[in-house]
Design goal:
globular, D-Maltodextrin-Binding Protein, domain 2, alpha/beta, about 10% strand, five-stranded mixed beta sheet, disordered N terminus, single chain
Amino acid sequence: MQNGKAVWLRVFCLLCALTLTAGLLTACGKGKGNEGTTTEERTEANGTTGTEEETDEWGQKTYDDVVPKDLDYDGATVNILMRQLDASDPRRYEWFVDSIESGDTLSEKIWFRNQDIEEELGVRLKFTQKPDSEMNGTIAQAALGGGDEVDLISHYHYYATSMETMNYYKNVMHPDFTYLHLSNPYWNQNFIKYATTQGTDANERLFVLNGDMNLSTFMTTFCMYFQKNLLQDRCNMSDSELYQLTLDGKWTIDTLISLVKDTATLQDETHDVDGNVYGFTSNYEVHAYDGFLAAFDIDLTQVSDKGKHTLLNSTAQRKLQLAADKLVTFYRSNDVYLVGKNPNDVSFETEKYTTPVAAFRRNRSIFCVAGMGDYKHLSEMETDSWGLLPLPKYEESQTAYYAGVQDSHNTVAVMYGSNKNYEMLSAVLELFASKSYANVRPELFNRVIKGQKLQDSQSGKVFDLIMSSTRWDFSDIYPTAVQNVRNTLWRDALRNAVYGSGDGAASVISAISKNKDTMNDALETLDGWLYTHYN
């Protein structure tokens, strides 16, 4: 039998050990998120604790692409089919450059990214370009030959998603893609989330991908530009006040409408002339409409617990009506000018599809909705004369800002074929995305856009906010397959109302009534295809 002193000593030692352990555990729970050095401890989103991951030269968290370093495919050719576009077009630029332009650090990053992929994997990247009008035919022709002439496809997203064309694609969630890690952030997680809402039996089906090599996605993301002097002179608000209002979450469509009310100066009310100055401008064809669906947090489809997609329910329809009415009424006011409708307008430039910043860049508009890539048209404006904003929320209580994306960006697909080396293709895709995340995207964001184009640090903050908030609807992922839901129920309906005699609410409800059965049938067909198609 142990004596009392020995028992007391053992109990005392045990209590000391427990106290020390509790102190260590408490220390592990005092992480400060992403602040501090790269070794700082933090609390994860799921409540567990962990050590801060290393960050790169841009301050981004580093991710292991998990592609083995000793892979060697012995000079195998990877055939990449892509859209034929001008060398300066970012939808081409994202995949390869013909040469490194003097002083162009972005082209240098793209050039060496591709060389690194070839050297690390022992492959040869072969790019074939076809006009948009020939892409689907080329894909179909390749399929007839077993798919051997095409491996990876970079295609205009809208035209890439017909049921007929997607039958030639390989499901990128198939286990054959050994090295494709779609949970890493260099694959657009919002895009994947909306694309895989089919329910438990079909949520491992994904036939088009969006990754950080897709610079065109960033360039076609909708945003709002504003002219600082006009804001001060006509709205009695400074740019710093507007930035603060936005970062405080108070930038709404009603705020925009109120700010620009009665701010226009019109020398000619019949058409656009050089002397006209407007409160708001955009392009009448697309930009004035598309981005607001995402900005207002409106989904045009809904999904049941069993994974069945249908058009929006009555609650969402009411919000859609109110939003449509608000925009149509706004666009009909004298404070707004939508570029490109009237060929007699001075801002209607030589091309039919006029850039949405045509009037804005001439300092004739306070606000303008355009694509992020339209910054390249603003070089003629004075330094620090303009700023950047997200599209406004529908109402202040909305939890976040959301950024819509025009459907002219590229997405990636993999050609189906019985003799394909999908392990190799998965490694190639993974390195394209991960190396773009590490080098190409931050070069574009931090040096080209924020470093050279954006005018102030506040615009840089807003830029980061926009780029992290891109949002899709299920119907945006497969637009052609579901009978153009967004274009028909929103874009076309609003444009018809703006230039017609009806109101916005009646126009969108009329479009829903006319197309509901056809679109629900298309959604049902797509759901069925996704449930059964697992090649």
